[in-house]
Design brief:
The complex is a heterodimer of chains A (298) and B (467). By secondary structure, chain A is of the alpha+beta class. Chain A is built from ten helices and nine strands. In chain A, a hairpin with a 2-residue loop joins strand 7 and strand 8. In chain B, the strands form five sheets. In chain B, strands 12-18-17-16-13-15-14 form a seven-stranded mixed sheet, with helices on both faces. Classes of the chains: A alpha+beta (298), B alpha/beta (467).
Chain lengths: 298, 467
C-alpha cells in the first residue's frame, strides 16, 4: 500500500460564529435585508430594517436581548458610532460594517417553563418584594399608580381595563426604553411564565382560559400601539415581551422564582441592566406574580 | 435614566426632565410648564430644564452632557478576566464563585475523586450544571448527584467526563470542530472525539456534545444523565439530529431507551457499542447518510517506506477507553481470543492505559504517555509481536506533540521492529497541526488512520497477510 491521500486545504481555523435568539431566526435565516443604525453603545449596537424590526448586535457578556446576536468577541463590535461599511442581516448571519458573522448557536429567549406551586411562587414573590424594597430606585409616581391599576385589572380578570392600564404606561418615563415600557415588558413576560400549575378542576380550566384571555388582550393592544407611542427599540422589545420573549437576565429571575436557583445573584444581574430598566422590569414581574396569586385566591 | 435626577438636583435648577419624546413624556413636560417642542418624535430625546438663571442652566446642561457620555465601568475592568469580583477576593467555594458570577451556568469539577461529590453538590445547589472531570467517584454518589440534578432541571456530566462541548465551548479533552447540526450525548470520551472528528472530516459540525460519564448506561445508574442530556439537546434549537453513543451499555437500560425517548421531537440515532452493533466509523457513516451528506473516504497516511509485515501477535496499546474497547471487539471477531488489560498476556492483547487502575496517582496517558511508551518500547523489541496498534488524540487539553513523543520511541527501536498502525483522532483545526502529526508518524514508519476501525482493520490485514 503506497497511496497517501491528500486532504483539502485547511479551513483556516474555527469559523467565526455568533449566537442568536430564536426569536429572530426568521430574520437571520431569511433573505438579505439592509440594516440602518438606530443607536450605538460600546457593548450594544441597535439596528433596524426600516420597519419596526430591531436587531441588536451585542458584545459577549452584555445583556442578551430577545432580538440580539451575540458577537464572537468584543473586537467584532463596530468601532465608531457610525457604520461606514455595508450592514445587512440574512442568509444565516449578520454583516456589520462589512464584517461577516455566521450564526451557528441559538438560544431560546423564553425560560423552560419550570413547574411551580402556589407556595413556591408566594415565597419567591416575598423574597423579590424584600429585595426590591432595599433598592435605591423608585418608580415614578405616575408609573407605580398605572402598574397598580394594571395589577388590579388582571387580578379581577378584566381584559379591557387591563389593556387600558397597560396602554397608559407605554412611552411614559425616562430612558431609551421608557420606564413605563420596561414595567409592562416585565409584567407581560411574568404573565406568560409565572402561571402556577392548572388545577385539574373545571374551575381551574376556566381560570386558565380567563387568564390567557386577559394576557392576550393586553399583548394585542401593545402590539398595535407601541410602534407609534414609543421609541423604535422599545416598541420592538415590547413586541417580544407580548410573545413571552425576554432577555436572559429576565428569564433567569423567573427561573429563580420557581425555587430552582438562588434569587439574589440573578436579581443583581437584572438590576445591572440599563440605568433603571432592570429595576422597572423586576417591578413588572412582581406585579404580574401578585396578580396571578390574587386570581387564585379570588 | 439617572441623568434626570442628577440635573434636577443641581443648584439653581427647579425642574428637569430628560426623556425620549414620546407622547406621554411630552404631556408630562407640558404639565411641568414647559413648551412642547415642535417636530420631536419618540426616537428623539428631549431635555427640559427650568433654571433660576443662565449660568445655572449652562451648568445643568453640562451635567446632561457629562451624564450622557459617561461610560459605565465595563465588566472587563471590574475583574471579568477570571480575577473574581471587584472586591479582589478570589472565591473559595463553588457557591461563592456562583454568587460572584451569576451569569455562569456550568461548573467544571476536577479534583481528586473522593472530594468531587462535595464540590459537584455545591454547584448543583447554586443552580449550576456540572462537568465532573474527576474519576474514582463511587457509583452511589454519582446516582445522588444525578437525582439532585434531575430534580433541579440541571445536568451532571460525568464523573470521568473526558470531553464535552457546551454552547460552543470545549471542556476537558476537546477537538476544534466546526459548529453544526449534530448534538451528541456520550457515555464515552474518546468515542465522542472519534465521532466528532470523523463528522468534521466529512464537513459536518456539532451543536453540543454532552458527556454523561462512562457508567451512565450501566444497570445501577440507569441512564439518569442521558435522559437529562437528551431533553437538553431536544430543547436546543441548533440541534437537528441527536447521536447517542456509549461504551457497552447494560442490555436492559439500552432496551428501555427508545421507549423513554419517544416524546423527543428531535430525530435520534443510537450508536451503542454492543456485540454485533456498528463500530464508531460505521455509526458516523449512518449519521451522514441520515443527514444526506456523502460519506467521504476517511483520511489515512501511509509511510513512505512501509515495513514488511511479519507474523506474530497483535498488541493494542491505547490511551482512549472506548477506542480500546472498539479495537478489542473488532480484533476478537477477526483473530479469536484477545486479552484485555492483562499486561502479562503473551498472545493478542489490547490494553486501555486510561483505565482507573493505571491512572491512580498519575495523569491520564493522553497527558502523560510515559507508561504506554515504556510498554511500547518493550513490544517493539519483542520478536513475538507482529503488529502494534496505537491511538493518538489531538485537540485542546492533551499533549502538545503526541506524535513526536511516539516517533521518538519508534525511532529508538532496534533492527526489524514490528509494523505500527495508529488511529489519529483529530481535526485540521486542532492546535497540534494534524497533517504535521501524521507526517511525524509516517516518517517514523507508522501508518495513520483517521478512523480507529480502519486502523484496526489494517492491522488485522497486515497480520493475516504475513501468516
Amino acid at each position: 500500500m503506497t497511496a497517501v491521500l491528500t486532504r483539502s486545504a485547511p479551513v483556516g481555523g474555527v469559523a467565526v460564529s455568533g449566537a442568536a435568539s430564536t426569536a429572530i431566526r426568521g430574520l437571520v435565516e431569511g433573505p438579505r435585508r439592509a440594516l440602518t443604525l438606530l443607536a450605538a453603545f460600546p457593548s450594544a449596537v441597535y439596528l433596524t430594517t426600516g420597519d419596526s424590526t430591531v436587531l441588536a448586535a451585542v458584545a459577549p457578556g452584555s445583556v442578551r436581548l430577545p432580538c440580539a446576536v451575540v458577537m464572537p468577541s468584543a473586537a467584532d463590535m463596530p468601532d465608531g458610532e457610525v457604520l461606514t461599511g455595508e450592514s445587512w442581516v440574512g442568509l444565516g448571519g449578520l454583516t456589520l460594517d462589512g464584517r461577516r458573522v455566521e450564526v451557528s448557536q441559538w438560544w431560546r429567549p423564553t425560560p423552560p417553563a419550570p413547574p411551580m406551586s402556589v407556595e413556591v411562587l408566594a415565597r419567591g414573590l416575598d423574597a423579590l418584594t424584600a429585595r426590591l424594597s432595599v433598592q435605591q430606585h423608585r418608580l415614578l409616581r405616575a408609573i407605580s399608580d398605572g402598574l397598580r391599576r394594571l395589577e388590579a385589572a388582571v387580578r379581577m380578570r378584566e381584559p379591557d381595563p387591563a389593556a387600558d392600564a397597560a396602554s397608559a404606561l407605554i412611552g411614559l418615563g425616562p430612558g431609551l426604553t421608557p420606564s413605563g415600557d420596561d414595567v409592562v415588558s416585565g409584567f407581560l413576560v411574568g404573565l406568560h411564565h409565572l402561571a402556577v400549575p392548572r388545577e385539574p378542576t373545571r374551575n381551574g380550566h376556566a381560570l386558565a382560559a380567563a387568564r390567557a384571555h386577559v394576557r392576550d388582550r393586553i399583548a394585542g393592544r401593545i402590539l398595535i400601539e407601541a410602534p407609534v407611542r414609543t421609541t423604535t427599540l422599545s416598541a420592538a422589545l415590547l413586541g417580544h415581551a407580548a410573545r413571552g420573549h425576554a432577555a436572559a437576565e429576565v428569564t433567569s429571575v423567573l427561573n429563580a422564582l420557581s425555587g430552582r436557583r438562588p434569587l439574589s445573584p440573578v436579581l443583581m444581574r437584572l438590576m445591572a441592566v440599563g440605568h433603571t430598566s432592570g429595576y422597572d422590569m423586576a417591578c413588572g414581574i412582581l406585579a404580574a406574580g401578585r396578580a396571578l396569586l390574587g386570581q387564585r385566591e379570588g | 435614566m439617572q441623568a434626570s435626577r442628577t440635573v434636577a438636583t443641581a443648584p439653581g435648577v427647579s425642574d428637569a426632565m430628560i426623556a425620549m419624546a414620546t407622547e406621554l413624556n411630552l404631556d408630562l413636560i407640558e404639565d411641568l410648564g414647559f413648551e412642547r417642542p415642535a417636530g420631536a418624535g419618540p426616537n428623539d430625546m428631549v431635555v427640559a430644564v427650568a433654571a433660576a438663571d443662565r449660568s445655572a442652566l449652562d451648568h445643568a446642561l453640562s451635567l446632561v452632557d457629562a451624564a450622557l457620555t459617561a461610560r459605565a465601568p465595563s465588566r472587563d475592568s471590574a475583574g471579568g478576566s477570571g480575577a473574581g469580583p471587584a472586591s479582589g477576593h478570589l472565591p473559595r467555594t463553588v457557591s461563592a464563585a456562583a454568587r460572584d458570577h451569576p451569569e455562569a451556568e456550568l461548573a467544571l469539577i476536577s479534583v481528586p475523586g473522593p472530594h468531587a461529590f462535595t464540590e459537584a453538590m455545591d454547584a448543583l445547589e447554586s443552580g449550576l450544571s456540572v462537568v465532573v472531570f474527576s474519576d474514582n467517584v463511587p457509583v452511589e454518589l454519582e446516582i445522588r448527584l444525578k437525582d439532585e440534578a434531575a430534580h433541579r432541571g440541571l445536568l451532571v456530566m460525568g464523573p470521568d467526563c473526558g470531553t464535552a462541548s457546551v454552547g460552543g465551548l470545549g471542556l476537558g479533552f476537546a477537538n476544534a470542530v466546526r459548529p453544526g447540526p449534530v448534538g451528541i450525548v456520550a457515555a464515552s470520551g474518546t468515542g465522542a472525539q472519534q465521532l466528532m472528528c470523523l463528522l468534521d472530516a466529512a464537513g459536518v459540525g456539532i451543536s453540543q456534545c454532552l458527556g454523561v460519564g462512562g457508567r451512565d448506561l450501566s444497570a445501577a445508574v440507569g441512564g439518569r444523565a442521558t435522559r437529562q442530556a437528551l431533553r437538553r439537546l431536544d430543547d436546543d434549537p441548533a440541534t437537528e439530529l441527536i447521536a447517542v453513543i456509549s461504551k457497552p451499555p447494560d442490555p436492559q437500560v439500552a432496551q428501555r431507551l427508545p421507549e423513554e425517548t419517544a416524546e423527543l421531537a428531535t430525530p435520534l440515532e443510537f450508536g451503542l457499542l454492543e456485540p454485533g452493533g456498528p463500530d464508531l466509523t460505521r455509526f458516523t457513516e449512518q449519521l451522514l447518510r441520515r443527514l444526506g451528506v456523502a460519506v467521504p473516504a476517511w483520511p489515512f497516511w501511509a509511510p513512505g517506506r512501509a515495513r514488511p509485515a511479519r507474523p506474530g501477535v497483535l498488541r493494542g496499546l491505547y490511551g482512549g477507553g472506548t477506542l480500546a474497547a472498539e479495537a478489542h471487539a473488532l480484533a476478537t471477531a477477526a483473530l479469536g481470543p484477545v486479552a484485555g488489560d492483562d499486561l502479562a498476556a503473551t498472545g493478542h492483547l489490547v490494553v486501555d492505559f486510561g483505565a482507573d487502575q493505571f491512572t491512580v496517582g498519575r495523569a491520564h496517558p493522553m497527558l502523560d504517555p510515559a507508561l504506554r511508551n515504556q510498554r511500547l518500547a518493550a513490544d517493539l523489541a519483542d520478536p513475538a509481536v507482529g503488529v502494534i496498534l496505537l491511538d493518538v488524540e489531538l485537540g485542546y487539553g492533551v499533549h502538545p506533540d503526541p506524535a513526536g513523543e511516539l516517533a521518538a520511541v519508534l525511532a529508538a527501536a532496534g533492527h526489524d521492529p514490528p509494523a505500527v498502525v495508529t488511529a489519529l483522532v483529530g481535526t485540521l483545526a486542532d492546535p497540534q497541526d494534524m497533517d504535521g502529526q501524521a507526517k511525524k508518524l509516517t516518517d517514523a514508519g507508522a501508518y495513520a488512520f483517521a478512523s480507529n476501525a480502519q486502523a484496526v482493520g489494517h492491522a488485522i490485514q497486515l497480520l493475516q497477510a504475513a501468516r
